[in-house]
Automatic annotation (TrEMBL):
Protein name per its UniProtKB record: FTP domain-containing protein
Species annotation: Archangium gephyra
Cross-referenced InterPro entries: Peptidase_M4/M1_CTD_sf, Sperma_CUB_dom_sf, Zinc_Metalloprotease_M4
Biased composition (Polar residues): 1-15
Region (Disordered): 1-22
């Protein structure tokens, strides 16, 4: 233990102006003739440090120094002292804590205080997982075999924010690829605190597509040409840095190990230059290595250190079919060579890497809706990372950014542009489910893509990756949406919670309900409102229709359905094939109505003066749908002496299937009780929708001392308009 004897340099010393550690309030590096003395160099150095202990913050409880190395330089002898911290009966090394002293003959010439000042704040926890469990965790994180030699010791780790924790330090070396790992795990939680690799990787160079030739050129006429190295495709290559290679001459490094099915076809370059034409398997090995490594680097740049942070194996010619895959058993990616070689398209590489990411975060991923969400996440990852990374590297993407795999797709797609899939569809879950993982994945990817457009790539990419950790192996889209919303709160990621929730609701992947309103019923308005119907009196397949009802001045609206009949089937998600959603125009969801309600149904109270009824159906059977026969108005919106008669004619389905059921034959006609049916009285006028939409105005019986003029001013106006679209032809 070094104690403070003096707090200033002796008069005989000369101290030059040095570096000052503003954060710690002490010197950092000093030089000059700091102290003269006799004896050994270590004794002289220790004597100087003892004199300056308080000034240098060496007098903290339990702090001491141990000489670790001595090296001779041209300016003298450099003595490196390791910082130690006494905790209980142990004297623990402080990670990255050192004091280096330069002694020339009998003079201390310089000192560098690389101390971790907060180390004395570390506490030995009472409860710790056993060493065997910590060792298993270290092997898992470092992808080590069970028989690999792993050394260990306990140290004190101080984070960049000054938090001191006792940690296990595990040390292991590997040969293929070479690594010298130092991994620090919190002794109490086994959370990774830091890792360091003593093996220094090198950068190579190679030709790649970024992300593919269609995306980088915008040329939709490009074709595979039987895998020929055509001038157009050769010109679409980019010479890039291949980072973090292990120096073996192979496309192998810190995050990827890319090879061929036949070991003899694997390329090797002693200069780490992979300069191949696109018809050479060496090109595909460089291309896959580049995209896998860059993807992991972006993941880590977002702050993640444990999201598939391993050497990802990949085989560029795994099969002759036009299909690629990730194997949870072998942990490898396999790319097909049918059509366009999949390993040439960065979108396909990143999509498959997405499966590896989810399997790493949620071992056993794939139950419930997770097959679809896995495909959707892979597509989103490819689209989002392509749009974020390639332009940052000076290679703008000139094709449609929502089109995934537009190079691979030239072999089979007749669309313009050709796409494997898109991430901007307007499909709604679960009514648009095709019970096929790739098709249904477009719903999940579209919801994420829309969120990305609102909050930015970094925010949404971070939320999606973080949300995976809490999912089980049989998750639903509803659960995954909740995980996204929770991740946003936990990370304070910056996405507006309300807007994110409404975005997920708009695609049907979230059914988080907003709190219903309350209050007494001020009046009830008889109505007859239903969906567009066919000649048989049923809504049509592929319906997506919204009717919006407004009673100006109301504090809430409650709907009474005298009949609800919707399609149900064991083959549909949650047995509900078609659904009714009650929400506000802002996008807040208050109720989901399913199945058959033959005895009628009273909805929850939707706050405010407007409620929207959205009916969405699948493409199979049709049913009657619904009929609203009464609107209960919450709040004091009228003179209690007025008596309202809805004046609605009995409900009869229209004979013309293309005409909305307005609920009365003269819908849209002006009402004598309202001056201008096209304007809602109040501080901000609302113009009615264009022709074809509806206005329903209740008739009024004047009485109870209320004159015609007063009735005209106080009459609550019920506005109804309908927006319908066909989702599919």
């Amino acid at each position: 233990m070094i104690s403070a004897c003096e707090t200033s340099a002796p008069p005989s010393t000369v101290e030059n102006p040095g570096a000052w550690n503003v954060t710690k309030g002490r010197p950092q590096l000093l030089s000059g003739e700091l102290k003269r003395g006799s004896g050994s160099k270590e004794a002289l150095a220790r004597s100087y440090l003892t004199e300056q202990a308080a000034r240098f913050h060496l007098d903290a409880p339990g702090r001491s120094l141990r000489l670790s190395t001595t090296r001779e330089g041209l300016a003298g002898t450099y003595l490196r002292f390791a910082q130690l911290q006494q905790l209980g009966n142990e004297s623990l090394r402080v990670w990255d804590g050192d004091v280096i002293v330069l002694v020339n003959r009998d003079v201390v010439r310089a000192v560098n205080l690389e101390l971790r000042d907060e180390a004395h704040l570390a506490v030995l926890p009472d409860q710790q997982p056993p060493l065997a469990e910590a060792s298993r965790r270290a092997r898992e994180l470092l992808s080590l075999s069970k028989d690999a030699d792993v050394a260990h010791e306990r140290v004190v780790h101080v984070s960049k924010t000054g938090e001191a924790r006792v940690a296990w330090k595990f040390m292991a070396s590997t040969e293929a690829p070479p690594h010298d790992w130092s991994l620090l795990l919190d002794v109490e939680t086994l959370v990774e605190l830091e890792r360091r690799d003593g093996v220094k990787f090198i950068d190579g160079t190679g030709y790649v597509f970024d992300v593919n030739p269609v995306a980088s050129t915008g040329d939709l006429t490009l074709t595979d040409s039987m895998n020929q190295a055509t001038p157009a495709l050769e010109a679409a290559r980019f010479l890039v840095t291949l980072p973090r290679l292990d120096g073996s001459g192979l496309t192998r490094g810190d995050f990827a190990d890319v090879r061929t099915r036949d070991a003899g076809a694997r390329v090797s370059s002693p200069t780490n230059e992979f300069l191949f034409s696109r018809n050479n398997l060496g090109f595909e090995q460089a291309n896959v290595y580049f995209h896998l490594t860059r993807t992991q680097e972006r993941i880590q740049a977002l702050g993640f250190i444990d999201v598939n942070n391993r050497i990802q194996g990949a085989v560029v010619d795994q099969q002759n079919a036009d299909n690629s895959f990730y194997s949870p058993q072998t942990l490898r990616l396999g790319f097909g060579t049918g059509g366009v070689d999949d390993a040439e398209d960065g979108d396909i590489v990143m999509h498959e890497y997405g499966h590896a990411i989810q399997d790493n975060q949620v071992p056993g991923w794939g139950g419930g809706d997770e097959d679809a969400m896995g495909e959707g996440f892979g597509d989103y990852l490819a689209a989002s990372f392509s749009l974020a990374l390639a332009p940052d590297a000076g290679r703008p993407q000139l094709s449609d950014p929502a089109c995934v795999g537009d190079w691979d797709a030239v072999a089979y797609s007749n669309d313009t542009p050709p796409c494997l899939r898109r991430v901007d569809t307007t499909k709604h879950w679960p009514e648009d489910s095709e019970y096929a993982s790739h098709a249904d994945g477009e719903i999940w990817s579209a919801s994420l893509w829309r969120a990305r457009s609102l909050f930015g790539a970094d925010v949404v990419d971070t939320l999606v990756l973080e949300s995976h950790f809490i999912l089980g192996t049989g998750g639903t889209m509803f659960t995954a949406s909740e995980a996204l919303l929770n991740a946003n709160v936990m990370l304070d990621a910056g996405a507006d919670e309300t807007l994110l929730r409404r975005t997920l609701i708009s695609y049907g992947v979230s059914r988080r309900l907003s709190p219903a309103g309350d209050g007494g019923v001020a009046l009830s308005i008889p109505v007859s409102i239903g969906p567009v119907r066919d000649a048989a009196g049923n809504y049509r397949n592929g319906t997506d229709e919204t009717r919006t009802l407004t009673v100006p001045g109301a504090s809430g609206l409650q709907l009474h359905f005298d009949r609800v009949v919707l399609e149900t089937s064991n083959d549909c998600v949650g047995r509900s094939c078609d659904n009714i959603y009650l929400f506000t125009p802002s996008g807040d969801l208050y109720q989901v109505i399913t199945g058959t309600q033959s005895a009628g149904l009273t909805s929850v109270i939707v706050p405010g003066d407007t409620v929207s009824i959205r009916l969405i159906s699948d493409d199979s059977q049709t049913r009657f749908g619904y009929r609203v026969d009464r609107i209960d108005v919450i709040g004091d919106v009228m003179d209690a002496g007025l008596v309202f008669d809805g004046g609605m004619d009995p409900f009869t389905p229209p004979m013309d299937a293309g005409v909305p059921d307005a609920g009365r034959p003269d819908a849209g006609a002006g009402d004598a009780g309202v001056r201008d049916a096209g304007v809602v009285p109040g501080p901000s006028a609302r113009t009615l929708p264009p022709a074809g939409d509806e206005t329903l105005t209740p008739m009024v019986q004047r009485g109870c001392g209320c004159g015609a003029a007063e009735a005209e001013l106080t009459l609550p106006l019920l506005l109804v308009w309908c927006g319908a679209r066909r989702r599919k032809s």
